[in-house]
Amino acid sequence: MTINTPATSNAAAAGGAPAARRSGLARTGIIAATVVAASAVNAVIAQIALAAGADATFTPLTPDAYVFLTVIGVLLALAGWAVVRRTAARPARLLRVLVPVVLLVSFVPDLTTAPNMAGSTTGGVIALALMHITTAVIAVAGFRRALPVR
Q: Taxonomically, which superkingdom (predicted)?
């Protein structure tokens, strides 16, 4: 007879071991996979934007820029997620509000700085916003698996 507790039922739904039993190495692997997946999706977005007419000299659409910023963004988001997870009385509820707000704030440079950069086009700026959205979606999926909240 199996008794489903929140930890075991969440793990079954996520397709893995309960989070309490997940090793630091497994969590690190999930976060690394999250960074790789987000960077890969951002590469596709950049290539589509360039193929659609975005200027190749627009620095944010170069791999050096978007991979570096994806890594930094995911790691900063991970730190925030971990703090909320550890300190908030109801972390899941707080994250449901905080994640969309932080995502909206992340558009500020896209709307203020990026349009004034060399090679900027409307398509390039839209691509940057899409990169923020997809990175957030992929990061939240990875964090929910590596560091689930209650």
A: Bacteria
Nearest C-alpha neighbor of 50 from the set 59, 104, 7: 59
Buried b (16+ CB within 10 A) or exposed e, 115-131: eeeeebbebbbebbbbb
Q: Which two tokens stand for residue 114?
A: 């990026």
Tell me if 14 sits within 8 A of 145, measured CB to CB.
Answer: yes
Tell whether the torsion through CA atoms of 108, 109, 113 and 114 is positive or negative: negative
**Is residue 3 domain-resident?**
no
Compute the chain's Rg from CA coordinates.
18
User: Is 128 contained in some domain?
Assistant: yes
Does residue 112 sit within a domain?
Answer: yes
Residue 129's domain comprises 23-146
Spatial distance between the Cα atoms of 87 and 90, rounded to a whole number of angstroms: 9
For the chain, how many structural domains are there in total? 1
Q: pLDDT for 81-102, tens place per residue?
A: 999 999 999 999 999 999 999 9
Average pLDDT for 96-110: 97
Please write the tens of the pLDDT for every residue from 126-137.
999 999 999 999
**Is 17 among the domain residues?**
no
